[in-house]
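FW: tagging you since you asked about this chain on Friday. Here's the raw sequence from the shared folder, copied in full. Didn't touch anything.
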Amino acid sequence: MGVKTDYYDILGIGKSASSEEIKKAYRKQALEWHPDKHTGPDKEAAEKRFKEINEAYQVLSDREKRSAYDQFGHSAFTPGGGFGGPSTPYGRSGFNQQGGQYGPFTYTYTTSGGDSGNPFANFDFGDPFDIFESFFGGGGNPFGVRQRRSIPRYSIKIDFMEAVKGVEKTVNVGGKRRTIKIPAGIYEGARINFGDFTLSVNIKPSTLFERDEDDIYANVVIPYSLAVFGGEIKVLTVDGDVKMRVRAGIQSGTTIRLRDRGIPHLHSRGRGDEYVRLNILIPEKLTREQGKLIEEMGKRGL
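HL: got it, structure written out here
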């Protein structure tokens, strides 16, 4: 078997990355390399890369698996390796443990009944067997623990602000009207598992904001006089207008950060930031007084 790429390198993160940084890196890579976004000869390479990204995330997002990987490397997940074997504490439990092995990768999760303990049953992934079917190329059930029933998949398009704030929608599923809740901070392409169906979320772009993960960017035009003398302006955020101070002599293109004015984190507390790009409006025509003032400023080297 060939040498496997380091999981941290696959996600483009350092070994000290936090769990939130790991999620962000996974989300960015998975969206970029999803096979559905590639065609022709690039599709095969994208599928391979997508599998590597998912494999890396499944290990690094789990505290125990990550610890084993940091200690033993890839050998931790091979037969006789340091993780999940019968001689390790992870292989013994008084709960219901489901799992198996496929190639070099071991997958387990433990519950006290049902799927409530499934660490992958979240908005990012849905059914864990659904993840690993695509992970290992589809076909049969590689784990030999149960046959996964097929559930219908739907998609829904929501507005930008609905994605920011969260929203309840009434939808028609199998001829029945259902009220579903989409959480605040949902991102483009996310899939939510409602048990008897899954829902892919598409978000309409905003004309006012650009989104990057949980941060947002806004362009604001300010008059030339404000850029010269400084002052206070109102800036639009996802929560409404807020006042922002502009220092005297600010340059066009300057970006000002507004902390905690971005999009709520989907899986944790807190939220992103808003970045305001300032563009200075230079008047096409000047009055005589304005012209004299500009000329005087020029003489002073301002």
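FW: The chain is about 25% helix and 25% strand.
HL: agreed, and Residues 41-60 form the longest helix (20 residues).
FW: great, closing this out.
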